[in-house]
Every structure is written in C-alpha cells, then in structure tokens.
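Pinned message: reference record for 11029_t:CDS:1
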Amino acid sequence: MAPNLGINENRRNFRQLNQSPTYSGGHLHTSSSSLKIPLSQHNSLQITMITVGSKNGNKCLVSLSNEQLSSDRPLYHSKINLMFCTGATGTAETAGWIKHATLINNCYPVGPEEKGPRSNELSYLIFYANSKPAKLTKCGVYLDKRVSTDVRKRRKQDTDISLQIIKALLEECNSNLNLFSKNVLKIISASLSTNDIDVIARAASVFITFCSYHDGSTLGVDVEFTQIYEDLISSFAQYAMCKDHNTTIEQRYRSIGLHALRATATSNALYTTNARTQLQHIIPAILYNLTDGLETLQEADLNPVNDEPIPQSRRFSLSVTTISLEENTILAYHCLKELFEKSDPSN
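Predicted structure (tokens):
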C-alpha cells in the first residue's frame, strides 16, 4: 500500500489523501491541488520544517528530523495531527493520542542493529504512564493499532519491539492492568498471526507476564475480552500439540504452548465463571505431551525433580531455541501437577 497523508483540520472537515506525497523543488506534492506543503532545509539543525496550509488559511509548522522523514514508521505531531507513514491511514480518531504516540515512537530504535527498545525513552514512557494511569488506555490503543499495521506489513523488528514495550508497561503498571488489558490481548493475538516462531515466542512471554498479574475480574463481564482470552488459550494449546517434520521446530512450539498454558493454569483468572472452557483446552494439550513421553515420566518417578517453585517469568527463556522431548514432558508434568495443587477457592 502506498503511503498516505492524513490531515485533521477541525474534526468535521477531515481529508484523506490517497496518493503518495513526493518531494521536489522544495515542496511535498500530493494529489490535492488545494494542499501546499513547502519544505525548507535547516542544515545546522538537521530539521525539516513542514508548513501545512488549510483551506481557511490557517497554517502550522511541523518539525521532522531527516531520520523521521526517511523512516517508514508512523509519525505524529500534536499541532495539526499530521500522520506521515507507510501503510497506516490517518483518521480523525488520532486526535488526543499524539503525546502518547510520540512517547511510544521514541522507544523504537533508529538503526536495524539495535534489537531492543531505547532504554531512556522507555523509562520515560513508563514514568509518564505511572504518573497518569488514565493514559494507559490510549497507550494500549495506539500500540494495538501500530502492531496491527506492523504485522500486516511484516515488520518483524517493530512487532518485536512493540511486544517488549507492552511487556514493560505490564510489569511496571500492573496495578492498573484493567485499563489496557484488552489491548494487551489484542496485541498478543495479532502477533501470533505472523506465524513467525520468534515473534510467537515473544508474544508468549508477554502472555505469561499478563497471566501473572491478571486476576480474572473482567472475564465473563467483558464479552470481547473473554472471547479473545479464550481464543489465545486455544491457540497456545494448539502450539502445545504441534506436529512438524522438523523436530526442533515442533518441540520449540510445544514448549511455547506449554509455558503459556502453565501460566494460565496457575493464574487466578482460571477460577472464574469460564474455567470449564479454559480447562477444555488446557488439559488435552497437557495429556498429549505426557503420553508422548511415558518413558520420561517413569524416569521422573524414580528420580524426582526439584519441586521448589520458581517465579513464572524465569521459567520461559527466549534464548533457548532447542528443546528436547524429555524437557517438554517434564514441563507438561509440572503443569498438570500445579493445576491440581492450585485448588478452586469456591470448593
């Protein structure tokens, strides 16, 4: 899809330009003759000033760096709600997000050699979210829309960074989880649709973190949230029962699925009104892996493994990509054991 330039002039007079803007002769040219966007280069500051003139004669200045102009990532500016991006279409809905979008966009690395979010910018985003918890909803909505675009455009690195950002917000702003919990699940769901095992593993780590903080209070109350949550459990159960001609890939998918199901089985969200639906996905996947490794289970009976509890977040490692059948069998065993140990408070 060609880049789109969307300008919100006054919420009632919104135009969307569907042709790619081009730069020549000191101007951005678009398909609209009524829109003139002159550019002037300030070499000393390495800043490009964009002047946008609307039909009523109002003008605004927007400062964009050369890096931003050459990037294919969405760019927003608070003055005129300018959206200059590849694949994402500007809408009047973006008004009011701009501060949050700027803080989030600043977390993304500039160069391809950078693998994680920019630490200082991420720290500032977390500080901002903690200072104004009500803004977490808008942060979640923006990240949700951004991930949807990145997944559609197959931007693996940006999707991975977005997952790391939302996980950091989960860990640091968990006391206000319900303000953005639905967006977290939507982001995870969109990431699973990539069919990229590395992205799926990252999404699983976010889901594990989510389960450790989610108390299930919105399950059965918010219909959409409940459906997404159950669909995710079903997806991870399918990963746990993966069959592939490549044994390494198969066992890694199974490990991802089992770790996610283990997080679900030990979460307080299991003991809600929809527990039966969750268990219908969890138990068959666990048993599937137990029956595949009966010899391993017999050895485990003779040599009991250490049952000392380990923090959930440390049990799943993104760096481990080679997992054996025996490891997954033991993992399934622990998952079933913990499922029975965590009794339902209603009983």
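Pinned by admin. Summary line: Confidence is low (pLDDT under 50) at residues 1-66, 72-97, 308-314.
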